[in-house]
Amino acid sequence: MSIKPDRNQRRILAKESAKQPATLRQLPREQWPNFGAPDLIEVWRSRGFLVQIYIEPHDFQRMSVCRALHNGDSWVDQVTWDELMQLKRECGRGNKDALEVFPADTDIVNVANMRHLFFPPEPITFKWRARP
């Protein structure tokens, strides 16, 4: 599917999304999008979301999240913090710290309404913690 799907493609997407479970399920490799990213290691899908996990340098992983709904102009956005936390749990990373990066202006790549969480290989030391 192109980055900006036409009306028929949006209808197909809506029908396919309706068939998905309410919570994320991991897709087998033969059902992954066919754009061939070599660093893609997992794909998860639910009615509302597409989540892709990538290997990044220095043993980081990146979780890319987008809504599975297109409004004709762009992919629907407004993924909340609570939704990100739930998706993180649903794809088996609830026990890991994650970081969201807001890059310098010169490094911005904004081609779709996506959110990215980065999982460092070790727990971060500067986070707030719940008090015992």
Main traits of this protein?
five-stranded antiparallel sheet; globular
Description:
The protein is α+β, with helices and mostly antiparallel strands and 132 residues long. It has helices at 7-19, 81-90, and strands at residues 25-26, 40-45, 49-55, 61-67, 115-119. Strands 1-2-3-4-5 form a five-stranded antiparallel β-sheet, covered by helices on one side. Helix content is 17%, strand content 20%. The model has no long low-confidence stretch (mean pLDDT 86). The protein is built from two helices and five strands; from the N terminus they run αββββαβ.
Itemize the secondary structure elements and their pairings.
Layout: H1 7-19, E1 25-26, E2 40-45, E3 49-55, E4 61-67, H2 81-90, E5 115-119
Antiparallel strand pairs: 1-2, 2-3, 3-4, 4-5
Strand content: 15-25%
The low-confidence runs, each spanning 5 or more residues with pLDDT under 50, are none
Which range best describes the helical content: under 10%, 10-25%, 25-40%, 40-55%, 55-70% or over 70%? 10-25%
C-alpha geometry: globular
Number of strands: 5
